Structure formats: structure tokens, C-alpha cells
UniProtKB/TrEMBL annotation:
Top-level taxon of origin: Bacteria
GO biological process: enzyme-directed rRNA pseudouridine synthesis
Active site: 140
Keyword RNA-binding belongs to the record: yes
Record-given protein name: Pseudouridine synthase
Family assignment from sequence similarity: Belongs to the pseudouridine synthase RluA family.
């Protein structure tokens, strides 16, 4: 059961759309407000309204705010294809395969890095929320490559700080459409949730500062292989920034890639791979770095592009 709230519309919201008024009153997104209205959880002066209805000061609002879903817990089961690149008492560095999320989230029913490690008998740090134990950074479910997980509490706090203070070197390889001009450069553009509210992100004024450095490794007829260094680590950052400069990752249909090119290369996801990860070891303080080879689907697509050029 949710929480029942009843209150008059404040004077300051006179004439606002109902979805916008609810968002301001209760601090959730307009998309969430529209969902509650559509579900019949909002009454305006006793009747079921539309999200675009204008509200008047003093009108009576009855809102049922559903209880937040319980945080999902990791399912401990081995994940096929998830290799361990390095392990010691403090950290485990894995090579994350396609279709694996970092940790459980509401709505994700697929395998997770955390569940895979627990299922293979690895110990992970217990700091942080139960569903994210030991997770100090994430890769998108369909982005492959090197990822570190903390095993000790010390490693968890030190790595969290290293990622926050940007002392970790995160290098990616991305196959993007066309040829970026200049061949090497920096994209410095703020990122936040896409206004469409569909799970995508976008360059948005007032978003979180986001900086991506890129360098062209190899140029082909239809695409370019880039070496990318992330200074910040926003969700979908490389995908959003490459799309913003009109060179989306090949195969990244959500961010404007050409579906015909993706089909020709046999890609069912964005061509993006976390190629290497370097950081100060949380226990010894020495600089360590780990690399991950291109997985089969990306390697095959790259071969085709190279052969066609």
C-alpha cells in the first residue's frame, strides 16, 4: 500500500499543469506524476483529472504515493563468459561480457557482475547498499570490458574516492560512424536525463559536468576507431557525447546510429569496449593497470569494416 496525501493546491501553483504541479509538490519527475495520474492515484476536487488539466489555488488534491519497490538482491549464480583478469585480497578485476549489469536494479532480471562473483565463490566488500556491495563504478549492461570490484572495506572506500576524484584512468575503444573533425579532441558538455524521460541521457544545459577526450586510432571508409579517455563517468557518457558531435557509436540505435550499418556488421549493441583501467592499488598504493581484448562480436564487426575500406 502507498501513502495517502491530501492537501489544497498552494497559491504559487495557480494555473500550472497538474503533472508539473505534482512534480513540484512531491519532488518526483513529471513522467512519474503522469504515471500516477494515469493509474488513477490522483483526484482533483474528487474527480479523476488529466495530466494536462490546469490546477487552481485551493483546489483539493488527493494523491496516493506508492511505496517504493524493495531493493533487489543479487542472485548468486555464475555468469558465463565473465573472466577474472586479476584477483587479490582487496580487489577483483573482471572482463565483463555483454548483457550483464553491474548490480541488480528494479526492472533488471538479467545476470549481474555481483551475482556472478558471489556465485563463483568470490568475497566482496559489504559497504554500501546491499544490492551494490563492492561496486565502485559501473559499465552499461551492453558495454563490455574491464571493471574493478572491491573485496575489502578499505578497497571500497579508497576506490570510491579515486573514482570521485578522477584519479582513475578509464580508457575505452569505440567504433563511431564517420570521421570526427578534428581527429583528436575533447567534448566538454553537461549531461542529464533526456527530456523524453525514456531512460536515455542527453547534453542538457545545467546537467552534470562531463568531459570526454578522444583520439583516432584508425580511420575506415564508413567509420573510425577511437581511443577514448573519460575524465568524468556519467551514465552513457561516451554514447551521448559521440552522438552529440554527430558520430554515434556504430550499432547504438538508441543514440542515432544507422540500423543498416549495424545489421551489415552483425551488431546488436553499441560498439564500445572498456579497453583498460588503471588506478592506485588501494592496499599497496602502486599504480596497476588491466586491459581487456575486444570480444568476438566487436572484433568481427571491426574486421568487416577494415576489409571494406
Amino acid at each position: 500500500m502507498g501513502e495517502q496525501r491530501s492537501l489544497p493546491v498552494p497559491d504559487g501553483l495557480e494555473g500550472e499543469r497538474l503533472d508539473a504541479a505534482l512534480a513540484r509538490l512531491f519532488g518526483f519527475s513529471r513522467t512519474r506524476a503522469a504515471e500516477l495520474i494515469a493509474a488513477g492515484d490522483v483526484l482533483l476536487d474528487g474527480s479523476a483529472p488529466a495530466k494536462s488539466d490546469r490546477v487552481h489555488a485551493g483546489a483539493w488534491l488527493d494523491v496516493v504515493i506508492p511505496a517504493p519497490p524493495a531493493a533487489p538482491v543479487p542472485v548468486a549464480e555464475p555468469v558465463p563468459g565473465m573472466r577474472v583478469l586479476h584477483e587479490d585480497d582487496d580487489i577483483v578485476v573482471i572482463d565483463k561480457p555483454i548483457g550483464v549489469a553491474a548490480h541488480p536494479t528494479v526492472g533488471w532480471t538479467g545476470p549481474t557482475v555481483l551475482g556472478g562473483l558471489l556465485g563463483a565463490g568470490h568475497r566482496v566488500a559489504t559497504s554500501g547498499a546491499a544490492e551494490r556491495q563492492g561496486i565502485v563504478h559501473r559499465l552499461d549492461a551492453n558495454t563490455t570490458g574491464a571493471m574493478v570490484v572491491a573485496k575489502s572495506e578499505t578497497a571500497y572506500s579508497r576506490l570510491k574516492r579515486a573514482f570521485k576524484e578522477r584519479t582513475v584512468e578509464k580508457r575505452y575503444h569505440a567504433l563511431v560512424q564517420g570521421h570526427p573533425d578534428p581527429l583528436r579532441g575533447t567534448v566538454d558538455a553537461p549531461i542529464d536525463r533526456h527530456p523524453a524521460g525514456d531512460g536515455r541521457f542527453a547534453v542538457v544545459a545545467g546537467g552534470k559536468p562531463s568531459i570526454t577526450h578522444y583520439d583516432t586510432i584508425e580511420a575506415f571508409r564508413a567509420a573510425s576507431l577511437l581511443d577514448i579517455r573519460l575524465e568524468t563517468g556519467r551514465t552513457h557518457q561516451i554514447r551521448v557525447h559521440m552522438s552529440a558531435i554527430r558520430h554515434p557509436c556504430v550499432g547504438d540505435l538508441a543514440y542515432g546510429a544507422d540500423p543498416r550499418l549495424a545489421a551489415r556488421l552483425g551488431l546488436t549493441r553499441q560498439w564500445l569496449h572498456a579497453f583498460s583501467l588503471g588506478f592506485e592499488h588501494p592496499a599497496t598504493g602502486e599504480w596497476v593497470s588491466f586491459t581487456s581484448d575486444h570480444p568476438a562480436d566487436l572484433a568481427r564487426a571491426l574486421e568487416i569494416v577494415r576489409a571494406e575500406s
